[in-house]
Amino acid sequence: MIKNIPVSESAHARISTVSMWLCVAALIVFTTVLAWSGFNGWRQASAILKDHSVVVAPVKLEDIEEKSGRKGRTTYTYHFSYTFEAGGTTHTGTFSTSESNSERYMEEDATVKVAYANAEPSRFERLDRLEANKSLGSVLKRWLITLVISGVLAFAAHQIITRRLFVVDPPATTASA
Q1: Which of 20, 15, 13, 9 is CA-nearest to residue 151?
Q2: How many H helices and E strands in the chain?
């Protein structure tokens, strides 16, 4: 439970201003990083899919990472690798997935489709990821949804700081005799 910290009215006003600017700055930084990441994914997908070849690569389980969460919950992250030949060179890629998405890669003879740039086979990625990032519209839609959710979270954080954590200390009442 959040403990209230009583402060004077002028201190609360300063805290509210600082909280607002910090939440706005965090929102800007977070959405900028997400936009940059999405744009880079789109750029990579576009570059590879412009002139590419597709190979089917066998998948190998590398390890399983176990994390203990809240209330005794345990989550597992599965780390896989795949190897394929292109241009006379062997290339190895890796990816991670949650336990619920790992089933199809755990099967015997599991494979993934990998696309690589014909001009530079060292530029490759799983075809399903490239397909998801190839449309700039879908990248922008995901970014806008994230922007809205991040804005709501920043607003909620500001409200918690200014309404629940730091509260205005009520003025002391004097007893009249």
Answers
A1: 20
A2: 4, 7
Which of 14, 15, 10, 13 shows the shortest CA–CA distance to 161? Answer: 15
> By the 8 A CB rule, do 133 and 44 touch?
yes
pLDDT at site 2? 64
Residue 113 and residue 54: Cα distance in Å, rounded? 6
Q: What angle do CA 45, 50, 52 make, to 5 degrees?
A: 90
Which parts of 36-136 are beta strand (E)?
A: 52-68, 74-86, 89-98, 111-117, 124-126
pLDDT, residue 132, reads 87
- Which residue, among 24, 20, 3, 1, has the nearest Cα to 12 in the 3D structure? 20
Mean pLDDT of the chain: 90
The mean per-residue pLDDT over the stretch 8-25 comes to 94
* Count of alpha carbons within 13 angstroms of residue 37, beta-carbon side: 9
Amino acid (1-letter code) at residue 78: Y
Please name the residues in contact with 161: beta carbons below 8 A apart, sequence gap of 6 or more: 15, 19
Q: How far is CA 86 from CA 52, 120, 133, in A?
A: 11, 9, 23
Measured at the CA of 101, the angle between CA 99 and CA 102, to 5 degrees, comes to 65
Reference 80, options 103, 63, 65, 67; nearest CA is 63
